[in-house]
Please model this.
Amino acid sequence: MRRRLLVATLAVVAGLVAYVGITFVQVWLVARRDSARPADAIVVLGAAEYNGVPSPALRGRLDHALALYRDHIAPIIVVTGGRRPGDRFTEASVGVDYLVDAGVPPSALRSEDEGTNTWESLAAAAAVLREEDRLDVVLVTSAYHALRVEHVAGEVGLHGHASPAHRQRGLENLGSMGREAIAVSLGRIIGYHRLVDLDYRRPLGRDS
Model:
């Protein structure tokens, strides 16, 4: 009986390791891919801002979204992200100001400034876009986060295609991709809306 229990336990562990391992490969492959194509909107996932100044991560995403907009990938850009306690600005408002300064007309911008994690931000963005019947979107985020963003977009009713601000080369950000593999593995089973605590923007939904 003990031997059978041991064999069964080892089989379960091996299965879980294989499942997460396969997911890791998927995360890595999607991180190396740019799926940008003509769409209804470009959605920029938020990242940290410092007293009204976008962090390098946020600036990289905004610049990438700007390049896509200028290439006529989509007619509007949706900027997402709320604020932490003590912040004067939201990630979304900083993003809007940055893009307006770069020449994007305000009429081509939408913002979602309440979300504190990926699921909340995309769910709120989906509500905004649904009112305009714009559900086919290009998602701008970090490379290692691309697969989960596509999955979350599908969960909130968007047809999302990730276009990483910086495509992954080799095994860059190995730790981040490992964390994402775990998050995607769990999200597929329990639903991504339950993964707030595993979100890539840390702490309290922030990226560095």
Summary: The helical segments are 2-31, 56-70, 91-101, 118-131, 146-155, 174-190.
